[in-house]
Amino acid sequence: MPDTTIDTTTMKAVGLTRYLPVDDPEAFLDLDLPRPVPQGHDILVEVRAVAVNPVDTKVRRQDGAVPNPPRILGFDASGIVAEVGPEVTLFAPGDEVYYAGDITRPGSNQQFHPVDERIVGRKPATLTHAEAAALPLTTITAYEAMFDRLGIDRDGGNGGESILMFGGAGGVGSIAIQLAKRAGLTVIATASRPETIAWAKELGADHTVSHRGDVVAQVRALGFHHLDHVAIFNDMRHWDAAVELIRPQGGIVTIDDTHLPMPMGAMKTKAASLHWEFMFARPMHQTPDMIEQHRLLSFVADEIDAGHLRTTVSEVLNPINAANMRKAHAMIEAGTAKGKIVLEGF
């Protein structure tokens, strides 16, 4: 009789042993690795779907040696709790969850993934795992950027104010548009192609302008001289336009680090504020308020289940393997993706 025993000590994973261009066949490898055991506040998630973000491609393109190869990327996942560590109180085996993880630890591109419960949310019950996996990193980024950094009231206290989002049709912009509209803001989103313009409007943007043209002129042609808030969700090439458009005592938030000049003279004379958003800051530094990411993901799950927000997935690749990971990274690097690209099923 053949041995049909299932090996519960190993798992499948997609990883890298060298930082390589995406067109190199060894940019990602299919691997078999030891199955982790959850400790402390960790839950062990059986991963059903993962999403790819620009941060994945930035890490893969960096120079130098891979630390402790193989390196496992992946900063978005949806799955089912398989085991829990001894200090876990928020979840139990069998719970469906979604989360973005911690950039200082191995990522979610593995069949079983340990992650701190305090940065994990209850998966929206009305979404599939593929639909849910599209949301965590961008949701946390958009939520923290607007509500934690800019101080906008998520429940409508700033209703009627305006916000300009550079990169409105991208992953972060796609959820930020929805959150901002839910908070009562007037949303101007940048988009440059017919399909991304349609996508931004479908998600609720009141106006779109092209970031390939004169954004200041386009915004003012809409009747806005200054804007209450500006969010830079793509890159800092738009810094001068953002500073020109922000109102006195308004705020600009950005998710992009840059080596480009950032003149501050007009920011000073407007008494405007600049905020940096980095959604990994809480888990990276083990801040006392780490659990806020659990709370905000669970809040968004409730909003989705109530029909107020929707997933931002635009394409699903199956299965989760090295070939599809290379394909997804290539799509992100081409800069033409709208919404989120998801891989489903090991």
UniProtKB/TrEMBL annotation:
InterPro entries: ADH-like_C, ADH-like_N, ADH_Zn_typ-1, ER, GroES-like_sf, NAD(P)-bd_dom_sf, Quin_OxRdtase/zeta-crystal_CS, Zinc-ADH_QOR/CCCR. Residues 22-343 form the Enoyl reductase (ER) domain. The keyword Zinc-finger does not apply. It is found in: Cytoplasm. Pfam families: ADH_N, ADH_zinc_N. CDD domains: AL_MDR. GO terms for cellular component: cytoplasm. Keywords: Acetylation, Cytoplasm, Metal-binding, NADP, Oxidoreductase, RNA-binding, Zinc. Its main location: cytoplasm. GO terms for molecular function: oxidoreductase activity; RNA binding; zinc ion binding. The keyword Aminoacyl-tRNA synthetase does not apply. It comes from the Bacteria. Belongs to the zinc-containing alcohol dehydrogenase family. Quinone oxidoreductase subfamily. Homotetramer. This is Zinc-type alcohol dehydrogenase-like protein. It comes from Primorskyibacter flagellatus.
